[in-house]
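Please, structure for the following, as tokens.
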Amino acid sequence: MLKLRAATVVETLDTGDDREIRPVGRERSSAVAEQRLVIELTGDVDAARRREAIADVALVGRAEVGDEVVVNVEALDLGLDSGGFDVVHVNLTRGLDGENDLSRGLPHAMKLNYTSLQHAVTPVEREQLELPVGRAAAVLALHGQLAGVAWAFAQAAPGARLGYVQTEGGALPGGHSRTVRVLRERGLLADHLTAGAAFGGEQEAISTAGALHHGLRERGWDAAVCGPGPGVVGSGSALGHGGMVALDSAHVALALGCPTLLVARMSSGDERARHRGISHHTLTVLDLLLEPVTVALPAGMRSPVGADLRAGLGAVFGGAMPSQPSPERRALALHVERPARIARHDWRRASIDLPSYAASGLPTETMGRGLAADPLFFGAALAGGSALAELVAQSATEHPDPQDGAGED
């Protein structure tokens, strides 16, 4: 059941910039799509009355101090690490007065359908299906990998166009990611499409397949990166987590004929044993995939499984490795039930440059840990970006570009 409470806006923390806020169903920048507020709950409530909230401007409009709103308080009341805000459900003072832009056709497909936030969009999918797509796609398990992948890709393939497809598995609103905003402003991402249940990107796709096909075939991307928004869903179980969306995305990319790279989730600083070394999220996907994919490791790591992984950490990161006071935290070797299923993939070593990434000004924190505390997490993402650039070059050599003459819409 929805946990809704009445509230009053007492402060606006994020007012965006001077660019127009365009309503849902229209291509728009996500830079000003989300507004941060301070609200005060009204009525008899047990929780603290003054709290932070977020509002998706394209869905519920822009709020001003004094507005009466209804907010969903479930995530903040539960104390979820990735849901530390109330979310504005409706603005009772201003209502919903957005208008659809018909210049790109009449919006006719629903997102968040059969919920109280259902809204019409104009999807990017068209009648034609041109296979194989033939351009590379990288698949993420966590949104926190996106910046490292995009930066390393740009270093290895200057001038190449990398597009981002946001899937389910984490935050669904496209405007919630500050990382995407920064990457778009710096030209490290060419486009931001939201697919499936995700919404609010610069363009909308009904499916991940439709988003990848559109971006790589019609938008002129040289490569795509596909993964969830911030705040991955998790339950501590083998299959009940947002990282499993990588399995679906990888299968879609393979089916479209894309050279497919899985960006490994790795950690040298996570307190949870299941995420140290190569996370069980990545290992599960690698085990279940129907076809092999490419997986990147930072150069110097010799094996995807077993004691060689731990031995390779010191060679790669040296003094950057965090101190590990307990034997349990030092246990970075992997033990998998079906090692042949893991080893069948195309494991590649890629050079990384952690100091340069640290100086780039891009995000260097994951789940409260900085780059110095968890260099392997960022090193794996950088390796993914470098390997993606390698796949782009390899594909261009082996298969002539199927999109000669194609460009942006």
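The chain has two domains: 4-91, 136-398. The chain is about 25% helix and 20% strand.
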